[in-house]
Amino acid sequence: MITRRSALAILAGGVPALKLARAADELPQIAAGPFQATRESLQEYHVPNWFRDAKFGIWAHWGPQSAAEAGDWYARNMYIQGERQYDYHVKTYGHPSKFGFKDVIATWKADKFDPEHLMQLYKKAGAKYFCSMGVHHDNFDLWNSTYQPRWNAVASGPKKDVVGLFRQAALKQGLKFAVSEHLSNSFNWFATSHTSDKTGPLAGVPYDGTDPAYGDLYHALPKDYDLAKGLPQAMSRNAPDSWKQLYFKRIKEIVDNYQPDLLYTDGGIPFEGYGLSLVAHLYNSNAKRHGGTAEAVYTSKTRQDCQIGTCVLDLERGVAGGIPENPWQTDTCIGEWHYNKTAKYKTPKTVIDMLCDIVSRNGNLMLNFPLPNSGALDDQELKILDEITRWMAVNSEGIYGTRPWKIFGDGPVASAPAPAAGRGSGFNERTRKDFTPDEIRFTTKGSTLYAFVMGWPEKQAVVKPLATNSSVAHVKVRNVELLGFKGKVKWTQDENGLTVEMPPQKPCDHAVALKIIGA
Question: What ranges in 55-114 are assigned the alpha helix state H?
Answer without folding.
Answer: 74-77, 84-92, 101-106
